[in-house]
Predict the structure of Phosphatase.
Amino acid sequence: MSLADRTFAAVLFDNDGTLVDSTGSVTRSWVTWAQEHDIDPRTLVGHHGMPAPAIIASVAPHLDPQQAFARIEQLEVDDVEDVVALPGVLDAIAAIGDAPAAVVTSATHELARVRLAAAGIGIAQVVTFDDVERGKPHPDPFLLAAQRLGVDPTDCLVCEDAPSGVAAARAAGCSVLAVTTTSTPDELGDADLVVSSLADVVFEVVDGRVRVHPRQP
């Protein structure tokens, strides 16, 4: 069954790369941190969507993980100059209106807060790295978001841009709409629908449930 033939009780949005463009901030912050520790920044490629501690463990297992995480977190929180909403995002959120929705991000609560604020996005329910023991690609963040919204995970639509997020959503039993902001269509192949951005689809609420379908040319 295609997404256009279904309705959903709730929509769960990833943040970075799905709702907001934080590429500049992320790149500048991680490169700065890497250079501070003589780490080749090229080793950071391919980790998008993963929680920061997992990235640190992968590229710099010799460093104190808590100190490294705190430093990167501060760099990113302090750098939101060019963080903006991605195409179609504000229209999608406006169309969903009061229907259940949540942001589900691998960032910390403080980082998610400043980025959502910088982009002018107001979604009250936010599940962050701070709320779960296991982040993406584990299903825990999406399961917690569904629980907080009082809906079944299998009745949720997840909007994601990263393979780890798609894997997490699938493991939680959710349907997935993926955008190619940071990944190729092949990398997002497990999604139900892959589009270039949320501007390519239309969200609408029917009898309190959310429907999404491709935007007609």
Notes: Residues 23-36 form the longest helix (14 residues). The chain has two domains: 3-21+83-214, 23-77. Residues 29 and 72 are 6 Å apart (CA to CA).
